[in-house]
Write a structure and sequence with these properties.
By secondary structure, the protein is mostly helical. Helices cover about 40% and strands about 10% of the residues. The protein contains 4 helices and 2 strands. The N and C termini lie far apart (about 45 Å).
């Protein structure tokens, strides 16, 4: 039995999560309850937008950045 089921607490997946598809697979297969992408966000501040595109989801940018949202 998995640790998260045995302990009955939420768990997070961290480290080397660089693609939206990867994050979705982790959550969909129940390997974690949360995906933390802090390091990747430091490297790529547009990661949420790129992950959404990889998953076929369109997201709106924050209003102050409308002229800069690529």
């Amino acid at each position: 039995m998995e640790f998260r089921q045995t302990a009955g607490i939420a768990t997070a997946a961290v480290g080397l999560i660089t693609h939206g598809i990867q994050a979705k697979e982790i959550l969909r297969n129940g390997r974690a309850d949360l995906v933390a992408v802090g390091r990747e966000l430091l490297r790529n501040p547009f990661w949420p937008r790129q992950a959404a595109e990889q998953l076929g989801v369109r997201i709106e940018g924050p209003a102050p950045y409308n002229h800069f949202w690529f």
